[in-house]
Amino acid sequence: MNEPRHVERDMHEAWRAVIEAVREALESSGVDPRAIAGVGVTAHGDGLFVLDRSSEPLGRGIMSLDSRAAELHEEWKQEGCLEKIVPIAGQRPYPYSANTLLAWMKRHQPERYGAIGTVFFAKDWIRLCLTGEIATDLTEASTSFTDLYTQDYSDSILDVLDIREIRNALPQMRLSCDRGGAITRDAAVATGLLEGTPVSVGLHDVTAAAVGLGYTQPGDLSITAGTFSINEIFRSGPVIGDGWACRAGYRRGLWNCMAISPASSSNLEWLARLLLPEEKEAAQILAGEVDARLGRSRAERAVPLYHPFLFGSPYEAPASASLFGVQSWHDRADLFQAMIEGTIFNHREHVETLRLTGAVRRLGVSGGGSGQPSIAQMFADILNMPVEISTVREAGALGAALTASVAVGLHDSLEDGVAAQDIPMTVYQPEPARTRVYEGIYQRYVALTQAMKPFWSGLYEGAAEGRAIEASNQAPVPNFIVAAEMTQEIRP
């Protein structure tokens, strides 16, 4: 398929990629498959993967960057449907949520919708390929289908969204550390893993990243700077509010308040490909150029200001990415630094929202170049909070592995598994001088966001030009602002 707003992946192709990754990991590590006690699984959350009644893929998997259901989502908003869901589920469905995509499919692909035998997620497809068993876990199911308080499947959500027909297609929901089958003969031949090796049910990737950072307690706030801007804090009870989704934690009786938007390091990858299309390590090259400048005071060099909304934003309006204050003397390192700062400003907006849910015990960051000291320091300075950085490069992979350690009895719980790890953490304290500079820049970032909102819809639709002009007369933009729109239709 080659349609605007559709972001999909062939499910068999995804499985082949897993096979290659597992084989490469075994070869490069030199680990004997017989020494592997268990396998943990994680993958991106949200989106939608469906099977037919023969347990074969029913079309391509829909990724979480997909925005085909935006119009339907807007209808729900106007009808008050989204608000009806909040007291049931603790969150409003997103355009890329599985329940929203199912409703879109019912309207636009009724034959496909009618043929659905299983509704689950990317991680669950991988585990099915490994074990031959169909199931999902609490963290994934709670993205679309569970009651906020009971943490069980909710028929009320399906009724409100008019997708009650798929109730029987929702798979068995288990806990992340339960056994979810064992490596089959076919999977063993394909991957090099040992047949019969236990596989845990696994975790939604962002929850896995929090666990891999060592964050398992109420008040632990973790940031994952990946394709999405993921900001989450565990709570001992459900907390409903604007600006976050209250989902299930990795065990019953634990909740995860998440403030997210598709507006983080994917921006950096986009610019890196654009500026250095022939370089495989383009992002690392540009990050190195930025790093060489970050030792000096931020006030010494005027860097453009960036809104990181290439793929989406935290706002319901159709936001656009923009660069402000670009001058002829700016170079590619300036632009890349502006993007890094802009993505961290977006994380800050989410973090400030999550602080409304209660006290923050600690804060850790993974992904998005945060392992680079200069960028980690930038997180601390912009957030004005101490930031912990783990020496683990892939926190999500460690979190998934720890579910397997519990599933096979090496640890009694994820908390015990985390406590048994001896992983050094580096703490970055905010530097007062830099924090003051970034505070002023952040306030400009917020002010420019508010100023641009009336213009966003007009950037996409000619029919909206009159509304944008009328709005601009009511809220004029200062004449020193220069905005460069950068948009991209996502295609597979």
Report on this structure.
About 40% of the residues lie in helices and about 15% in strands. It has about 500 residues and is an alpha+beta fold. The chain is globular, with a radius of gyration of 23 Å.
Task: Give structural attributes.
single chain; 492 residues; alpha+beta; seven-stranded mixed sheet; three-stranded antiparallel sheet; 18 helices; 20 strands; disordered C terminus; ATPase_NBD
Strand order of the largest sheet: 13-14-12-11-17-18-19
Structural class: alpha+beta
Number of strands: 20
Roughly how many Å apart are the termini? 8 Å
The helix content is 40-55%
Determine the mean pLDDT.
Answer: 90
Largest sheet: 7 strands, mixed
Report the β-strand fraction as a percent range.
15-25%
The number of distinct helices, counting runs of at least 4 residues, comes to: 18
Our Rg estimate from Cα atoms comes to 23 Å
Shape: globular
Low-confidence segments, ≥5 residues, pLDDT <50? 463-492
Protein name: Carbohydrate kinase
GO molecular function: kinase activity
Family: Belongs to the FGGY kinase family.
Keywords: Kinase, Transferase
